[in-house]
Amino acid sequence: MAREYFCAYHSYIHQCRGLSDSELGRLFRALLEYSASGELPSFKGRTAVAFDFISANIDRDMAQYELTCKKNRENVSKRYERMRSNTSEYQGYQEKEEEEKKEKENVKKDISSEISKKSTSAKKKFVPPSVEEVAAYCQERKNKIDAARFVDYYTAGGWRMGRQDMKDWKAAVRSWEKNGIVQRGKGMPEAKDYSFDLSAWESAHKWHIPDFSPGDEEEPTSKMAQGGKSKTE
Predict the structure, then answer these.
(1) Band of residue 1 on the pLDDT scale cut at 50, 70, 90
(2) How far is it, in rounded angstroms, from Cα 21 to Cα 39?
(3) Is the pLDDT of residue 192 over 70?
(4) Taking the CA of residue 156 as centre, how many other CA atoms within 13 Å lie in the half-sphere pointing to its CB?
(5) How would DSSP label each residue in the chain?
C-alpha cells in the first residue's frame, strides 16, 4: 500500500540550487507522480540528476514504511493467537470488561434512583390533617391546643404559613406549643397569660383640665358696653 506523501528534506535546497524555477516545478510534479504510481519521467541533464537521488530517498522511505506495517501486522496476529490459545486469559479479559460495564450501569441506576426520589419528595403534595389527627398529635405532645380550633384557623387561611404554603402541620403545632398559644372563646388564638392594665393606661394618658372656681371668673364686659357702672364708682 503506497503512502499518501513523501518526505521533502531540507538538504534538497542545496542539492537543487542549480535548477531554475521551471525545472524545479517539473521536478516536484514528477516526484509526486513517482511516489503515487512509480512512473518514471524522461528528464535529462541537471533535472535528471536531481530526480535520481531524490527518488532514491523515496524508495528508501517506502521500504521502511512497508517494513513497519508488516511488523505491526505480525504483532497484532501474535497477540490475537496468544489470547485464543490461552482461554483463561481471554475469558478473564472478557469478564473484566463485563464487570466494568455492569459497575457503570449500576452507578447510572443509583444516580437515576436518587434523582427520582428527590423529585418525588419535592413534588409531594401537602394534605391537610383532620381534627382527629391533630388531636392525637396534641395528646401525644401533652399540650392544651384545641385541635378543632387549630384546623379551623388554618383552613380559613388556606393552610398557609405567612406567605408560603404549609408543608408540615406538625411543625405548626409545635410552634403553637412553643409560643404558649391556647384557644379562648370563639376568636382566633391568643397568647397565654397575656394581660393589659386599662387603669394604668388611662392614668398615663389622662387629660388634666384646669379647675376654675366660681369666684375667679371675670365679669362680662357686656355690662360696661351697656353703660353700667363699675364697683369702684
Answers:
(1) low
(2) 22
(3) no
(4) 8
(5) ---S-----TTHHHHTTTS-HHHHHHHHHHHHHHHHH-PPP---THHHHHHHHHHHHHHHHHHHHHHHHHHHHHHHHHHHHHHHH-HHHHHHHHHHHHHHHHHHHHHHHHHHHHHHHHHHHHTPPP-PPPHHHHHHHHHHHT----HHHHHHHHHHTTSEETTEE-S-HHHHHHHHHHTTEE--TTSS-EETT----HHHHHHHT--------GGGPPPPTHHHHTTPPPTT-
pLDDT tens per residue across span 113-135: 777 666 665 557 888 999 999 99
Alpha-carbon distance 40 to 24, whole Å? 16
Please, are residues 69 and 1 in contact by the beta-carbon 8 Å criterion? yes
Give the CA distances from residue 189 to residues 146, 153, 192, 196, 224, in Å, rounded to whole numbers and listed in that order.
Answer: 10, 8, 9, 17, 69
pLDDT digits (tens, 9 = 90+) for 35-44: 888 888 888 8
Q: Which residue from 2, 62, 78 is spatially nearest to 37, judged by alpha carbons?
A: 2
- Give me the residues paired with residue 165 across strands: 160
C-alpha cell at 78: 501474535
For β-strands 181-182 and 164-165, DSSP reports them as unpaired
Q: Is 84 exposed, middle or buried (0-12, 13-18, 19+ CB in 10 A)?
A: exposed
| Cell numbers representing residue 232 in the block | 369702684
